[in-house]
Amino acid sequence: MKIDPLVIFTPSGKRGHFPVGTPVLTAARQLGVDLDSVCGGRGICSKCQVEPSFGEFPKHGLTVAKTALSPINEVEERYDRIRGLKPGRRLGCQAVISSDIVIDVPPESQVHKQVVRKRAEARDITLAPSIRRVLVSVEQPDMHEPTGDFERLSKGLSDQWDIVGITASLPVLTRLQKVLRKGDWSVTCIIHDAGTGTAPVLLDIFAGFDERALFGLAVDLGSTTIAGHLCNLETGEVVASAGLMNPQIRYGEDLMSRVSYGMMNEGGSVEMTAAVREGMAQLCRDVAKEADIELSQIVDATVVCNPVMHHLFLGIDAYELGQAPFALATSNALNLAARDVGLPLHENAALYILPCIAGHVGADAAAVALSEAPEKSEDLVLVVDVGTNAEILLGNTTRVLACSSPTGPAFEGAQISAGQRAAPGAIERVEIDPETKEPRFKIIGSDLWSTEEGFHEVALATGVTGICGSGIIELVAEMRVAGIVDGPGLIGSAEQVGTPRCFPDGRTNSYLVYDATPLGGTKITVTNRDIREIQMAKAALYSGARLLMDKFDVDTVDRIVLCGAFGAHISPKHAMILGMIPDCALEKVTSAGNAAGTGARIALLNTDARREIEATVRAIHKIETAIEPRFQEHFVNASNIPNAVDGFPHLDAILTLPSLNFNTSGDGTEGGGRRRRRRG
């Protein structure tokens, strides 16, 4: 029997089989993919632009041929001729499916725009940027002392500002003489001093006193999202923030999928480098537009990222990071020119990339360490940067350990049947009545619960479109508390649970959260496959933390700090019910928001902090989970909700989880199921 082509949409991760000849837009609509269109499929509005991807996709088990979509037709050719299509783009209403295909929906084609929740956290930062502005008086030329203009400028900088050994690029030198004379031998110099012992650099020069504001850009380059904060370098103020989806997501939602894409497709790494650099360039343009400044006013930048993103952004093949011993091309901090990686800033803008800790613990984890300073903590603190790849730090004043855990994209809403990125209309908060099993929820864009008067009127603007990461965490945890799902992760039947919201779905059961199909809306359910995805993700995160605790020879930690765009929105109680994090007093579980972004800002605004984190990184001990014998043991135990072995006394003090096992043929009473055992 011939199987229809498989169509996978990114970044949503939604997939389905469709007959040959099905338009991409039709497939997207049937799967509930967020793809815009207002012209009725006539190829006029261009709202449904998509980017097909070709080559080997090991994670999906697909080889996508160049012929997977129909050839460009007359409608697309006409649109391209009149308005222009970006290279590689197709109109979803015109392109039809021929064979298996992976299709990316770019942000501008999404009806419900992604909410990149990586805001700038309030933080007192001592200002000592690597960029400074100085006004210099330069001696005029003298026939009796035949020195060059640059040499006399250098002498002025040395005598008046103690800036010794200045260097300059050729473009600056070509303007030097005209600027000196226009300013009547008084000029403003923009100096970059990396603080590494290398010579300071003359970035730019202006006639007279120039007081236009100078800015720096701090970027958290994540595998899923890219977020940037534009800072005034002389006041430290964050004047603009912007974020976007990482364009690389179409090559794989998780890092290893991207490494595999580079391995199995000739030129794949080059493609991914071009994609992420274009995303970074767009971020630069977005923050400049928001702040209403010229890109040339941005003279410094710092970037934090995980090792795979680090290599691909720099144009280094990430092949070695896909296999033991996971060797980095370089782990040191890098001082570069922004133009070398395609950032459209000032022509001589500086770029500082924070050091990586080890093969899978990157500059983003270093930035978190700079922000949260576990090495200065008297109590034992667990710092978790929750994302597609979770970075975990555990330490105090005695030592700091680090590891990474491949949690995958489930926490971002991907690979979940009704999952989606955080956008207006997405369910982000959930409560389930343990008696009636009835849910209520909040969506992004509304402060009302779904049971409150006025909710449905507000929801008309966006619809209830799916479940984002924080929503799926709360939903699965609430299902566990309400007795809808058991410890091993099975959803009970209607008879076992006592609600018709549980219904047969293939060989297992699913739970109905919301049904607006009578009104032409969506039907949102949680399937057992969704539960499994969350179990795998949370088990990976917990196992990494548990492994670090083993190295400290402890069973508990004093406090937990959750970081990252997703981590900042997790309910600590629900995270503990799931067993994502170790047991801890709930008041000791706090959020640091976008700690990686905060670390990037600290490094941007304080050169001394760059030296501090470089020293700290050298002292952090990296634990490689892939080769640790106990990681798999912890993972198996942590697959249970909350855990098959480890106790949660703080959680037990505030609620009692039902003791259930639905893997029975009877009435749902426990039959041969596990009991949670305390660690002795």
Please give the radius of gyration in angstroms.
27 Å
Inertia-based shape? globular
Strand order in the sheet with the most strands: 14-13-12-15-17-16
Tell me the distance between the termini. 55 Å
Helix content: 25-40%
Outline the biggest β-sheet. Answer: 6 strands, mixed
Secondary-structure content class: alpha/beta
| Average residue pLDDT | 88
Low confidence ranges: 666-680
Q: What would a concise description of this structure say?
A:
By secondary structure, this protein is an alpha/beta fold. It is 28% helix and 21% strand. The protein contains 18 helices and 29 strands.
Structural overview:
This protein is an alpha/beta fold and 680 residues long. The protein is built from 18 helices and 29 strands.
Secondary-structure blueprint of this entry?
Blueprint: E1 6-10, E2 15-17, H1 24-31, E3 49-53, E4 55-57, E5 62-64, H2 74-82, E6 90-91, E7 101-104, E8 131-137, H3 149-161, E9 167-168, H4 170-182, E10 186-192, E11 201-207, E12 215-221, E13 225-232, E14 238-245, H5 255-264, H6 268-291, E15 298-305, H7 307-314, E16 334-337, E17 350-353, H8 363-372, E18 381-385, E19 390-395, E20 400-405, E21 426-432, E22 439-443, H9 455-459, E23 466-467, H10 469-481, H11 494-497, E24 502-505, E25 508-515, E26 523-526, H12 528-552, E27 559-563, H13 564-567, H14 572-578, E28 589-593, H15 595-605, H16 607-619, E29 621-622, H17 629-638, H18 649-652
Parallel strand pairs: 1-7, 9-11, 12-15, 15-17, 18-27, 20-29, 21-23, 27-28
Antiparallel strand pairs: 1-2, 3-6, 3-7, 4-5, 8-10, 10-11, 12-13, 13-14, 16-17, 18-19, 19-20, 21-22, 24-25, 25-26
Helix pairs in contact: 5-6, 6-7, 8-15, 8-16, 10-14, 12-17, 15-16
